[in-house]
Amino acid sequence: MSFGAPFPGGPTPIVVTYESQASGNVAPLSQTVWTFAGLAFGPAFAKRQIIVWVTALAGTAPAATVTIGGVAATQIGPWSTTGSLSSIALYAAAVPTGTTGTVVVTFTSFAVANIAVLVYQASRPFSAAVTVLNGVQPFSTTLNVPSYGAVIAGENITSQNSTPSAAWSGLTKDTDFTYGAFNRWGTSTASLNFTYGNPALAASATITGGTLNTGAALFAVLT
After folding, report:
1. Domain range holding 45?
2. Which strands form 150-158's sheet, in the order they lie side by side?
């Protein structure tokens, strides 16, 4: 999957940076449109891409549209979903201006009771190769990361009134985040920026502290 225009002059190393997060909850009700204003986007520059993780209370894959800073976002790969009501997806848009901005998530298939958004910045346009994992933890995969590439990964589980903590291998954890009614959902994201590349990076994630050992995860190699 290709996102954005080709970078002129050949591959240039891509850098991803975690910036901010937010969540919303209307349980026991549900809604389709979620607006998160004032999110940190990081420094503004011409080639900046804003990447947003979206997690939701959903046992089947939802359909959604996302705007980031007023720009229609492209979905990167499919939703990852498990029957324990944990779903996660990745969206991105070219947003060259503004150090803060608004993310709007509109669910077009069904309404949800709570969601979270987690914001990253990427240093240039990219292509993405996405690995989808869901079901019983731990989630493990082998990623082919070239010398100019980076990795971004996220997992979402039903934490059931506990405070989950993720253990990542091969990647650097950026955040653990609980949200929703009674903090029943846990999300963690991680990333890695490369200087020399790794053609066979073993990466894994396990969120502990939840009563259910099932979840949904995405691993994306950006080049």
Report:
1. 7-222
2. 2-3, 126-136, 214-222, 150-158, 185-193, 172-179
